[in-house]
Amino acid sequence: MPSTTEIRIPVAVPRRWWFTPVALGLLLAVVGTLLWWFTQQREQHYRHQIEASLNAINQLQIHGIADWRSRRLGDAQALTDDALLAHTVAQWLRPPQAGRGPQELQEQIAQRLRSLVEHLQYSKVALVDPQGRVLLAAPQQDMPALQAGDLAALAEALSTALPQELGLQQVQGQSTTFFSVIAPLFDGEQPLGALWLMVDARSTLYPLLQTWPNNSRSAESLLVRRGRDAVTVLSPLRHRSDAPLSLRLALQDGGDGAEENDTTVALAVAGGRGTLYGRDYRGHDVLATAGAVPGSDWLLISKIDTAEAFSDARWRQWLALGLLASLAVIALGGLFVVWQWRAWQRERMLKQTLQQQMHWLEAAQKAASIGYFLYDRKRRCYQLSRMSADIFGFAPQQSVSLKQWIAVLEPQEREHILQEHEQTLKGLKPLRLQYRIRRASDGAQRWVEAWCEFPEDGAGAGVAMMGTVQDITERKRDEAELQAYRQQLETRVRTDALTQVANRMALDEAIAREWARAQRGGTTLALLMVDIDAFKAFNDHYGHLAGDQCLQAVAGALAGCVARSGDLVARYGGEEFAVLLPGADAAQACAVAQRLLLAVRALDLAHAGAGNAQRRVSISVGVTSVDVQQLCFVLRGRPVAGLGPSWVPGEDCLELLRQADAALYQAKQRGRDQWVLYGPDCDASLSDRTTRPSMDGKP
Ligand SMILES: Nc1nc2c(ncn2[C@@H]2O[C@H](COP(=O)(O)OP(=O)(O)OP(=O)(O)O)[C@@H](O)[C@H]2O)c(=O)[nH]1
Known about the structure:
Blueprint lengths: L18 H62 L2 H11 L8 H18 L4 E5 L5 E4 L10 H13 L3 E7 L6 E11 L2 E11 H4 L15 E7 L3 E4 L14 E3 L9 E2 L1 H7 L5 E5 L5 E8 L5 E8 H63 L1 E7 L4 E4 L1 H7 L6 E3 H7 L2 H17 L3 E8 L6 E9 L10 E8 L1 H21 L10 H18 L2 E9 L2 H8 L1 H16 L8 E6 L2 E7 L3 H18 L15 E9 H10 L16 H16 L5 E3 L2 H7 L13
Parallel strand pairs: 8-9, 22-23
Antiparallel strand pairs: 1-2, 1-5, 3-4, 4-5, 6-7, 6-12, 7-8, 10-11, 11-12, 13-14, 13-18, 14-15, 16-17, 17-18, 19-21, 19-22, 20-21
Helix pairs in contact: 1-7, 2-3, 13-14, 14-15, 17-18
Guanosine-5'-triphosphate binds next to strand 19, helix 13 and helix 14.
Enzyme class: transferase
EC number: 2.7.7.65
Catalytic activity: 2 GTP = 3',3'-c-di-GMP + 2 diphosphate
């Protein structure tokens, strides 16, 4: 069917298509790096924060404990320095004398001991002699005996006159842990004994270890004292029910008598300061800090579970990350929206461009009467543009089946067109075809030209053929008119304007053509040269206008004498004519010459200057007929008289003219109004041509 031309619609291809994905990738990379950096910074920051606060708590508690200890020792020192108390005790210890009785003195001392319990919050207070025996206890108090280790401290206190601490102790038969101090008493230089002061650690010391500023679930402070291979925990445990002083932690695995291992305590005891990471007595990962209590062999270890310490930090970190991620998502969402918006805009612009191009295409099709189409091989149908449908006379926007298209083809051309169509589809080769149709809408016959092609990239070539179709009816009509005009011109150019027979150019072409044909076919070719006799005299007598009419009449008579296809009557020039007779032998040519003579005579044109008796217009005819092949052989084999040294192969046909002319000359010589067949005698008389006699016998 119709034409095919690939329909190329200029489309504004987005130039930097890669920009958006690359920018998004870079943005994601930057955001990721920033998030990672931020996470690291935050983690570092939180770690420092936690370590600093743990350290601060540890220091605070150490100060509290040190202060508590020094107060206890201060109390003891004050009692040692109390001269009144020492004097009273000394009196009470002496044998009874006049004055205050032992009972009264005892009452005074007991009163003093009670005041220590009541005002200084000591749990137990007792007066012991230099051997460590309890002499007097605060009222209603059951005092244990000094233990063997404590007697050394007592002796030290009495010898140095300085209070000595007994440390934290578990009193036999009681669950309470006491902190004991020995305050020596002297009567002058004489040691009297000592006050044994016991303060309940549970109510006065241990609360200092619980001063945590937060409500952590795992935070804990341990007061420990280093032994030889193990560490004794002096304070109660938060996560276990072990009594103070009962738990011993090994300094290393398998420590002597140690019950548990605690790496943070081991590190602290080994001198580790700052933040310590390890496992506690429960086996939990902890973060700890340790410090020595000044003036003692105590260490305070403050610790918290790592998981708990960082859970809050992690939670806050995740919160920050979540915030950042939300911002990133919002930013990406914004970018995506912008991208989509731009894509939508681009699509809209492309659609507008496409629409505009389609309008232009439609307009161009209309202006050029060109429509486009698509042929679907599978469905065997055409999709036609509006212009294509118009050309074929189908309804607009119609899908036309192959059958419908075949129906509009001109019946006699149908088979040929279908063959071409099939071959094109088979070979996937472009096709240009002009054919006639009977328009479906009104049955009018129209010429169309179809260009068919297949997609350049090959995609879909198997299923589709595209093309354009143009109504070329007007062009065809113009071409036909042009062709007719050209033929007319051709005829005119080869026709003599006066006589309407062929002119010299047509004669030359005919001679060359027939000469070649005769040469190929081995046939004869005859030429008759015709000259009107004494035509100068006719002109002189009747005038040139009459001369022209005479020429026309003679030409008509000559033309009437030849009827065979290929025979040609031409005006050779002036009053001379030539008659070309392809295939005529000498006899036939002479017969024609005779007919020419008779035909001119039959015109019966008056010619006052004629040489004949009737004074009528007459002609002389030179006749020649040659076997072209033979003549050519002769001409090329040896020189021919008359042709001269300038003769060249290819001009053989001039010999025909020469012979006819020689015969004509002979006819004139013989008196005119006759024909002469060329013979050797004609050549002989050619040399006399310049002295050719006139009609009146003059040269
Ligand atoms: N009227 C007219 N005369 C022509 C035309 N062409 C040539 N002539 C004349 O034809 C005459 C030819 O004269 P010549 O060549 O002397 O020959 P002739 O008088 O016919 O004598 P012969 O040929 O010897 O019989 C000249 O006078 C030309 O002027 C033409 O087209 N019209």
